[in-house]
Amino acid sequence: MIKTFCLTISRIRLIVGLLNRPPRVLLAAFGLFGTLIIAVIPTFAAPASGEFIADKRCELFQSKNKQTNPDQWQSNIGERYPVLEILGNSLKPDWLRVRTNAIKSPMRWISGACGQYQSNIAGSKLSIPATAVEPAQTTTAADIKAKNRDSLKEHGATQKSQGDQCRIGEKFDANVLALSWQSTFCELYGSRKAECHALSQTSESTQWQHFSLHGLWPNKQQCGTRYGYCSTVKLQPNDFCTYPEFELNPSVRKNLEEVMPSARYGTCLERHQWWKHGTCRSQDPNEYFLLATQLTQAVNASAWVQGFIHERIGKNVTKSELNQSFDASFGKGAHTKMSLECAKGLLSEIRINLPEVIKTSDSLPSLLAKADKAKKGSCPETITIDQPN
């Protein structure tokens, strides 16, 4: 009892002492108390929409706090992920919860430092979360939770409706030809890949000297990167080789293996490209891969690759030099239809925008002239064209 009384007297003396201090000291003291109070207020994730564009390889966590990552999923550079929730600043979140193709826990957390967040507030059908506004005095915690729950249900129903529309074949409105620089892929990501091990046996292989086919991606504007899986397969497996097999004509297979090392050495990238992208464009994998290989061969046969790129393997180039050379081969302004993707300063991929309709008789310059402008890629002003190690 005496201890309690003495503690109370001490607190009273502290308050009285503060009140006798100059105003500046009072403000500083109350500012310190306010900071301490704010520091213990928990931060909650808020529902969000838009896309997160990864510009780094980062882990995709099931739980960001426990750092759990089933199947060791990582973001792909240039990949666009639909955003479901954000934590932190609404323009530059610390963490974002995104939708992935992971089989186990497809909703994953990624650090905001791993890319750029493009919000879609104007187009979002989400109501403002109840926690973001000051509730009326009659509003209870249960009311706030109920409003948030209803908002999430509405968001989920909207996404399901859009998701159904994003899995209907032959409803695309544009295409993207994605071509990888094999040396960068093997150096940074493919150390365990059979194709990288085989190609490392000789630095003279022609597959080090040109771009490799990553994929031909039909796109639907309202779906973004979610347009895909338009057939019986609806999810990406952990291992591409567990996708169902499909038959290709010998001539198509031969041409494909020349531009896609994974298909040649059995790591099954072609299966992923067919089931995720090809099924949305065609019902015949022969037709899909015939067009994809022809477009790839047209790029690799150009003066841009045969001259400019070949002469600069192992060297640095500026983005403007690379773009000017691309225009010289494919037409004025053609570089605006291409995005350049880099990792650690190395050119890793080019993504070329193409129109909806592509005929086998169309030249690449004529297709580029009809295509929409590409989004800005991740490359810095100075780019290294990697050489095989």
From TrEMBL:
Pfam families: Ribonuclease_T2. Transmembrane segments: none annotated. Signal peptide: none annotated. Coiled coil: none annotated. Belongs to the RNase T2 family. PANTHER family: RIBONUCLEASE T2 (PTHR11240:SF22). This is Ribonuclease T.
